[in-house]
Amino acid sequence: MIPHHHRHHSILRGALLALTLLTLAPVAAVAQDIEAGGIYYSIIDDDQVAVVPAWDRGVSLYSGVVILPEQVYCDGVTYAVTTIADRAFWMSGVTQVQLPNSVTAIGREAFADASQLTSITLPLDLAVVSPGMLARTAITTIAVPEGVTVIGDGAFEGCEQLHTVVLPSSVEAIGFNAFSECYDLFEIYCAAPTPPDASDWQTIVGDLTGIDVMLTDSRAASRYQDHPVWGDSRVFSLWIDEELTFTAPQLSTTLFRDSWIGVDLGGHMAYEVYDGDGYLVALTAADRYYLPIDGRDVDYLIVPTNLINDDEYQELALTVGPTAINELLADADDTDPVPHPIISSTDGVIHITAYGLDQPLSIYDMYGRIWYQRPTVTNTLNIDNLPGPRIYIVRVGDYVRKVFVQ
Questions:
Q1: pLDDT per residue over 276-294, tens digit each?
Q2: Is the bond preceding 69 in cis, omega lying within 30 degrees of 0?
Q3: In the chain, N or C: fewer CB atoms in 10 Å?
Q4: pLDDT band at residue 24 using 50, 70 and 90 as cut-offs
Q5: Can you list the domains of the chain with their CATH numbers?
Q6: Rounded CA gap, 57 and 356, in Å?
Q7: DSSP string computed for 252-264
Q8: Taking a C-beta distance cutoff of 8 angstroms, is the pair 79, 34 a contact?
Q9: Whole-number Å distance between alpha carbons of 322 and 296
């Protein structure tokens, strides 16, 4: 239970933020160079873009589940998505965010005050958790990837539902008020063998007490015990995490937006996701992680971890590939209104029956590149010679379908 004075401060802060939004937020979408899939980008280099804020009448245009791509395509150029701009998703309605590993920099307060945001998957090449990055969100568990050296000032301040934090061996410093007002904070798994720099415990967790800190071994525990911040027993209880004991969830998957498989996870636990070649593709503490359906079957291995120990006995294995697309296509037309085009693919050919609807036809790939256009299609059309294996987006008039071409 949050003490009454803390609740009062939260209400007051919310009122001040509302006033700030009225005076500072744009009344229309800010200038962007590219819009793709409901996300707005600014070109920052010849081949790189940053995700930028987008507002309309004082309301962020971003909401729901956001899975950012590694690339966007515009005017003949493919751009890597490398940056999340300052306050890009500030006060937005996003509920879950999955960032690609192409992102290497996330700006200040990028997700701050997105009050419905419950989980985020950070990119593997991130070096700094920026100041205020996830402040006052609803995240419950956060896994910070290896390579991050600094947790910025107020990075998780006011995350009142944050329960579990997983920190990598690379972390060297934790900033002012990084975890203050995280009233539900119960445990920190810290793989760093040397205590991260902090001026005093109040600058890390404010007035919180009774936080369990899990460490790698007795040598690390001795260093933390002798540290003026981490060794304060009023605030932190130090433990050696000798093994990871965890019951993995029942494997449950869901098709999402035609081209993703959502895997249910959760349980205040982090997971490492490996592809079929054994490469680490993600570290996530999300309740649901999304794997792309590509042009080939890919075997994935999902391993529970706290970055100190892995639990290989509880690992989850699944295959994601064209089979999921075929199952989706088999069921899709059953719920669509009639009359409508019938769009399918067999043996590398896209088949379109338009039933005399006299509609324009366009075919794009998943990056938005146009591969075929025709002013109208009225009856039956077969299109081949499209590169495969690949997923294509077929638009006949206002009717849109995704098909897999072998």
A1: 889 999 999 999 999 987 7
A2: no
A3: N
A4: very low
A5: 4-205 (3.80.10.10), 253-320 (2.60.40), 325-405 (2.60.40.3080)
A6: 42
A7: -EEEETTTEEEEE
A8: yes
A9: 6
